[in-house]
Amino acid sequence: MELDEKKYLYLLILIPIVVCVFLFNMYWKRRKQLEFGDLEMVKRLSPEKSVFKPVLKIVVILLALTCLIIGLVNPKIGTKMETVKREGIDIVFAVDVSKSMLAEDVVPSRLDKSKQLVSQIINNLGSDRIGIVAYAGSAFPVLPITSDYSVAKMFLQSMSPDMVSSQGTSLDEAIRLSATYFDEKSKTSKLLILISDGEDHSEGATAAAEEANKIGMKIITIGVGTEKGGTIPLKENGVVRGYQKDQNGETVITKLNQEGLKTIAKATKGGYVYGGSTKEVLEYVKNALNNIQKTEFEATQMAEFQSQFQWFIGFAFLLLFLDIFLLERKTNWIKELDLFNEKK
After folding, report:
1. Closest CA to 3 of 53, 74, 61, 59
2. What is the per-residue pLDDT across 177-191, written as a single tens digit (0 to 9) for each?
3. Residue 87: Cβ-neighbour burial (10 angstroms; 0-12, 13-18, 19+)
4. Which residues does the UniProt record annotate as the domain VWFA (predicted)?
5. Is there a single domain that holds both residue 267 and residue 188?
């Protein structure tokens, strides 16, 4: 069994509060009766008033309140177990987080566009496992291979140039780190989707891609940016304070290098796609995935859970409905039985 909305459990504190209010009310009534006169005289003036009924009413209300809270928590009970076999491939997303990715020649920025592309690709995946790498002047592991897409997207949105201390763009570092995500002995197909503006400040990206090809890794590169290029804004609290300048004090213009990205993809018999159109990227990746052999890599026992809130909500309303008919007068047939000493 599992609880769907545990946050509502704190409402159970209402139960002791209601009990305390009820007891205080009983105490207050008793004090007022003592002020009015002798208790035995008061009872004779109201012979039909039941001592048991108020207790019964509060018990019914407490049970109804408890059922309503449990209904809000929504307990789920596993109904059956089944074996689930999953087929897919292992995919690593290597996202360029260098400062050049802050350029806004692509709306809203190259980095934000890259995040959007990766997020949309993840939304269209089936049972593939994914990992994430961030890179600039060096590469940084963000998320190991996982099948939890929601966690992957959460980590994806937190990526920024501040993650990597070494600036620049080292595509070879990204490729080599991504290669370590894959098990070389595994028969599962290996795919690296590398997103960048292609401005490589290192040497050896093609060599790194050729090494990756030897372990059966295919690379798809996605180019983000424009060949015309753009400036790199320096922001403080979301406000542009200036633009990145080089050693000579000139404003840096960063441009998309498609040829470098195409060369990397070609080394692994992969492919290149321009990231300007999300629809075209998704279509390209979809076709590429359809041509990659899927491998069965997981077989797990899963329990199907069904919500049970409706039973508790229904019982709560039934109790509240019955409470309407629970008057504080003595019940004749119970009075005849004298179960609760009501003949007095």
Report:
1. 74
2. 999 998 877 778 899
3. middle
4. 90-289
5. yes
